[in-house]
Amino acid sequence: MTRIPLEILDQHVAVLGKTRSGKSSVMRWFVEGLLDKGKPVCVIDPKGDWWGLKSSADGKSAGYPVVIFGGEHADVPINAHSGGPVAELVATGNRPCIIDLGGWMVGERTRFFIDFASMLFRHSRGLRWLVIDEVHNFAPQAKVHDVDSGKMVHWANRLASEGLGKGIQLMAASQRPQKVHKDLVTSCETLIAMRVTHPLDRQAMKKWIDGCDDPTKGEEVLTSLASMPRGTGWVWSPEIGFGPTKVAFQRFRTYDSFRPAKATDARLLGWASVDLDEVKVKLDAVVKEVQANDPKLLRQKIADLERQMREAAARGMVADPKAIETARREGEDAAWAGIAHWLRSLDAQAVAAVVQDATDRARTAAERIGPLLDALRHGPPRKEAAYATPQVRHQPPQAVAPQARRVASSHPPQAQVKGETLPAADRAFLTVLAQQGRALTRNQIAIFAGYSSKSGHVDNTLGALRTRGFAVGGRDAIAITDAGRSALGSFDPLPRGEALRDYWFRKLDKAASAFLRALCESYPATMTRDQLADRTSYSRESGHVDNTLSALRSRDLVTGGRHEIRASDDLFG
Question: Parallel, antiparallel, or unpaired for β 41-45 and 97-100?
């Protein structure tokens, strides 16, 4: 049997092949090897069929002592709001686990993954392996239609592009290669290509394989994919100089929970036990902290007060003053606790930019709760003022106000659209979101609109757009709403194809335009960072090269790391 270098597990691995080609079995074999060495491994299982790790092949003796979060075989039950707490457990110790999301609704799974991935990224220290089965569920290539889906894709791609720097080594599998986001696939240094039959799936693999030094060998890989036996795959890891080599993988040693269950299946006699006391205590404490600081729960309390007020008004009743005071105190405590929890989750540079927005959120909550409680205390409210919503006042922090004024001064003060008076920054940001037609990060919006991404004016403008219902989402995935499109009115759409490329050549500065032009001329082939510097006559040693490439990536105009840089497919659509 061909020996596979263990070094391939020190980098991201993509396992691609049609259903029943043996992808999950290959990953199970790798996971067993990592667990044998005592390595921290976390498996995200959207199908609910990895639980067999806890029992032997015949089901009569114990397998590996992994914690199963969720699912029919759960050691610890979880729900859509458990992502952050579970990630803290995974990131802060060696607790091998399976996160069973089998049978979850798409929205629940999306909510869990956003919280899990973002928390894991923030807190992970030391080497650990993250195994994601059917990764197209978390990083789809298709157009994103809602904010949460955009956040999910963002965090999946960020784990792939920046996870190694946090010690997170990714192993991801999919039965639909063409449906996996290209940024995630191209971030994987090792490809394990198993049987596929659909032309689009082979084409998705071809984009990865095209970098092979031996065209004849590469063609052999592609032409053989449709007839590959189950459990066999081409392994290619250019980073360590291995492959492409055809490998018949060994079968995993634990219970085969991947096969369809039968009514005659007996209950397993062997099951690995784990010490759950620490896990349950820590998870319970973290869940309670998250719930106590969750702004959504604060909004629910406000909604409950509104309902109570309407019911009391209908009956002409006045609420108990002690109950009112208790509700006021709990609401204020929850508001400030939520702000504190939010700020703790950010890095130091981001805190200053969001302090004002956090303060506005607390003021909004206090202003809404106050009149409601007063109405309950003094009887039914007057009709014309019963549910008035206060306007939030946005004032830029003093530390960034001078810069904000400088940036804003380069734009016209206001624009009139459909009867809605929009400040220039508001219109510029809404135009960017409407043109792109997808969720963008806070920095991408600023850059596309021509504003300094370091300006506090950016955060204040986005906060105002959210307050008016023109935009939704946090700093990592912001999208325009229907109300925002209505307020924006007409706008010039982005050009397509060659016209789009020419648009960016004119818009970018000299270095960025030269880099993008060279990459477009080479498309779909990739270039290394040094090749690109040589092609455009810039010094390889200049930091300007890396800064320019970073600016192009922030606009999603190029993809890949320093060794495989390519113009974005969107420029050729």
Answer: parallel
Cβ neighbour number for residue 101 with a 10 Å cutoff: 26
For every residue of 218-236, DSSP letters joined together read HHHHHHHGGGPPTTEEEEE
Answer whether residue 142 shows pLDDT above 50: yes
Question: Which residue do the tokens 């189950």 mark?
Answer: 230
Q: Please, what is the angle between helix 106-123 and helix 147-162, to 10°?
A: 40
**The token pair that represents 133 in the structure block:** 């089965």
Rounded-to-integer distance, Cα 15 and Cα 185, Å: 10
* DSSP track, 358-385: HHHHHHHHHHHHHHHHHHHHHSSPPGGG
**DSSP letter, residue 454:** T
- Tokens at 277, concatenated: 């006391």
β-bridge pairing 41-45 and 128-132:
parallel
Amino acid at 257: S
What pLDDT, on a 0 to 100 scale, did the predictor assign at position 412? 32
Contact 170, 188 (CB under 8 A): yes
CA distances from 314 to 358, 365, 379 (A): 35, 24, 10
Asked if 50 contacts 257 with a C-beta cutoff of 8 angstroms, the reply is yes
Classify residue 494 by its DSSP letter: P
Provide DSSP, 169-184: EEEEEES-GGGB-HHH
> CA 129, 131, 133: angle at the middle one, nearest 5?
175
Inter-residue contact 500 to 494 (CB < 8 Å):
yes
CA 86 – CA 111 distance, rounded (Å): 13
pLDDT above 90: percentage of residues in the chain: 29
What is the C-alpha separation between 369 and 367, in angstroms, rounded? 6
Alpha-carbon distance of 191 to 164, in angstroms, equals 17
Nearest Cα neighbor of 370 from 338, 339, 315, 329 is 329
> Phi and psi for 15 in degrees, rounded to 5?
-115, 110
Q: 211 pLDDT exceeds 50?
A: yes
Mean pLDDT along residues 323-336: 62
End-to-end CA distance of the chain: 44
Q: What confidence tens digit (pLDDT) does each residue in 335-357 have?
A: 566 555 555 555 444 454 455 55
pTM, two decimals, is 0.53
| Inter-residue contact 191 to 209 (CB < 8 Å) | yes
Distance, in Å, from the CA atom of 344 to the CA atom of 350, rounded to the nearest integer, reads: 10
Structural tokens at position 481: 């709403």
Is the separation of the CB atoms in 118 and 160 below 8 Å? no
Tokens of 312: 């009391």
Q: What are the distances in angstroms from CA 26 to CA 20, 187, 190, 193, 524?
A: 11, 20, 14, 11, 31
**Do strands 414-417 and 420-423 pair parallel, antiparallel, or not at all (unpaired)?**
antiparallel
**Residue 554 burial (CB < 10 Å; 0-12/13-18/19+)?**
middle
